[in-house]
Amino acid sequence: MGSFQQTFFNIDIIVAIYPMLLLGLKETLLLSVIIVPLGIGVGLLLACARALGIGWLSLLITIYVDFFRSFASLVLLILIYYGLPFFGVEIGTRSSVILALTLNVSSYFAEVFRAGIDSLPKGQVEAGRSTGLGFIQVQRYIVIPQAVRNMAPDLITNILETIKVTSIASVVTLPELLRMARIAQGNTYSPTPLIAAALIYLIILLPIVKLLNRLEHRES
C-alpha cells in the first residue's frame, strides 16, 4: 500500500508541484468563465434568430450548427491555431482556444435553446404578440425564461462538458491544468501530478454534477 501511495499519490511531489497546478487551475478557470458565457450567448442568439422563421437565415444557422457539431473540437483548435497564421491572422494561443471552443460549444447550446423554445406552446407567443409586445420582448419576457426552466438539465450538462473540454488547450501548449500536470509529470517521472489534476477536476465539477442530479430528479 505504501508503494502504491508513493507512486500515485506522493505527498512530497504534490507539495513541490502545487504552484504549477495552481497556475494551471487559474488558466482553466479563466477559459471556463470566458467560453461558457460566450457559448451560451452565441447559442441563445442563434436559437432566437432561427425562431424568426426567416427561411434563408434559418438555413444559415442550421448549416452553422450542424457543421460545428460535426467538427471535432480538437481538430478545429488545431486548424485555427496553426492555419490562421498562414493567412496572416495572428490571434494568440489563448484567443485561438477561446475561438475554437466557442464555435464548437455554441452550436450545442443553440440546439439546447432551440429545443427549449420549441417545447413551449405556440399560443403563448401569439398571446404575447397580441398584447402589443415585439419579437424581442416576447423572447425576453415570455419565451426565454420558460425555455431555460424547461432545459435546465441539458444546459448544465453542456456547461459541464464545456469546462471539461478546455483541457484540449494543452495541445497548443496553453498552460492550463492538464498541461501543467503533464509538465510536472515529466519533471518528476511520476503519475502523481496527473492524479492530482484529476482530483482537482473532480472537486470543481462534482458540485455541478450534484446540481444536475437534483434538477433531473425535480423534472421526474
From TrEMBL:
<keyword id="KW-0472">Membrane</keyword>
<dbReference type="GO" id="GO:0022857">
    <property type="term" value="F:transmembrane transporter activity"/>
</dbReference>
<keyword id="KW-1003">Cell membrane</keyword>
<feature type="transmembrane region" description="Helical">
    <location>
        <begin position="194"/>
        <end position="212"/>
    </location>
</feature>
<dbReference type="InterPro" id="IPR000515">
    <property type="entry name" value="MetI-like"/>
</dbReference>
<dbReference type="Pfam" id="PF00528">
    <property type="entry name" value="BPD_transp_1"/>
</dbReference>
<keyword id="KW-0812">Transmembrane</keyword>
<keyword id="KW-1133">Transmembrane helix</keyword>
<feature type="transmembrane region" description="Helical">
    <location>
        <begin position="56"/>
        <end position="84"/>
    </location>
</feature>
<dbReference type="GO" id="GO:0043190">
    <property type="term" value="C:ATP-binding cassette (ABC) transporter complex"/>
</dbReference>
<feature type="domain" description="ABC transmembrane type-1">
    <location>
        <begin position="25"/>
        <end position="212"/>
    </location>
</feature>
<keyword id="KW-0813">Transport</keyword>
<comment type="function">
    <text>Part of the binding-protein-dependent transport system for glutamine; probably responsible for the translocation of the substrate across the membrane.</text>
</comment>
<dbReference type="InterPro" id="IPR043429">
    <property type="entry name" value="ArtM/GltK/GlnP/TcyL/YhdX-like"/>
</dbReference>
<comment type="similarity">
    <text>Belongs to the binding-protein-dependent transport system permease family. HisMQ subfamily.</text>
</comment>
<dbReference type="GO" id="GO:0006865">
    <property type="term" value="P:amino acid transport"/>
</dbReference>
<keyword id="KW-0029">Amino-acid transport</keyword>
<dbReference type="InterPro" id="IPR035906">
    <property type="entry name" value="MetI-like_sf"/>
</dbReference>
<dbReference type="InterPro" id="IPR010065">
    <property type="entry name" value="AA_ABC_transptr_permease_3TM"/>
</dbReference>
<protein>
    <submittedName>
        <fullName>Polar amino acid ABC transporter permease</fullName>
    </submittedName>
</protein>
